[in-house]
UniProtKB/TrEMBL annotation:
Protein name (Swiss-Prot/TrEMBL): SCP-2 family sterol carrier protein
UniProt GO cellular component terms: cytosol
PANTHER family named among the record's database cross-references: SCP2 STEROL-BINDING DOMAIN-CONTAINING PROTEIN 1, STEROL CARRIER PROTEIN 2 SCP-2 FAMILY PROTEIN
SUPFAM superfamilies with a match to the protein in the record: SCP-like
Pfam family, one: SCP2
Annotated source species: Marinobacter halophilus
Taxonomy of the source species: Bacteria, Pseudomonadati, Pseudomonadota, Gammaproteobacteria, Pseudomonadales
Length: 104
């Protein structure tokens, strides 16, 4: 699955109820592809290609790790501990991804 398709799937599996009152930007630097960011704003989610000027958190990984996490085959925390996933900014926000998006 192409990286763009992975992000489309994420956007389709967005849990608007969990995002009520939130105003966040999740940036994904995909090392072997492009940078994307998801803007979460009070129950809405919009996908954008390219970097954001002020992301809340930036997750850095390769496309294989991204696909594993979105499909549910890879646990995000395990990927982080194994060095396959790095985070910059508010790392605690990365733990919210599982609430905001239905993985697997």
């Amino acid at each position: 699955m192409a990286v763009a398709q992975v992000f489309e799937k994420l956007e389709q599996n967005f849990n608007a109820d969990a995002a009520q009152g939130l105003d966040l930007v999740f940036q994904f630097d995909i090392e072997d592809d492009k940078t994307y960011h998801l803007v979460i704003n009070d129950g809405t989610c919009k996908l954008h290609e390219g970097p954001n000027d002020d992301p809340s958190v930036t997750l850095i990984m390769n496309s294989e790790t991204l696909q594993g996490i979105v499909s549910g085959e890879t646990d995000g925390m395990q990927a982080f501990m194994a060095g396959q996933l790095r985070a910059e900014g508010d790392m605690m926000l990365a733990t919210k991804l599982g609430e905001l998006f239905k993985m697997g």
